[in-house]
Amino acid sequence: DMKNSIEQLIKEIALRVPSITQRLITPVSQLRVTSKCTKQDHEAQELNLFCETCESLICVHCILSEHPPPEHKLLKIKETASKYKPKIEELFNQTKSKSSIVDSSIDQVKQTINDLESKFMKVQNEIIEESEKLITSIKERQKRLFEQLEEIKTQKKLKLENQLQQLQDKKGRIQNTLEFTKKTLDDVNNNNNGKAEGELQFAFFKKNMTERLHEVCKLANEDSEICENSEIELIFDFSDLKKSIEKMGEIFGYSKFTP
Question: How far apart are CA 3 and CA 29, in angstroms?
Fold first, then answer.
């Protein structure tokens, strides 16, 4: 019926748009309808008239005290219903049509919330994807730098190891020559029981010792400088990379309405 329909409409609007509730009339179900006048000295007379001017139900005593004609226009209850029912029905239909507009707005807001969640997940995945690309690029560059580093170390080490081997060989030849010469000189000095074996041996090896000593002296002076160094340096401007990462991407949320 009309009463329940109006009450249900008010409830729906109040639930959908809470900020309106302060301006809404009290729901019909919460109104206390009485057929007796509650004013003192009116002896609970029947409320059988409607004052159009004050829009309130009155009894016959109210006419004299507060609602005197012609200042106040009075109608019987039945006349009031007949006169105002079409207007209330028209207003009801208008309000009901407005309710469908609110329903549409609610659906749009719900859809926008769903779209927001979907776009949030989409952008979040894009951030992860782009970040992983950057991390992959950094790791690839790191790998190439490690390979470069290993190659430079290997080349330097190979040169140094070859030189070390040559120097060790040279050292061996010098050491052998020195040991042989020292032994020959010691034998001359000791002269073994007064015999001339030491002098004989010295004379015999004199030319050989002289040539070998000259040879190893010359050998010792040759290529004595180290052929390679241990310097390895990374030249990389990390500050530019950090700045690039700090400025990598921006998130924008373009509001439909701006303040």
Answer: 9
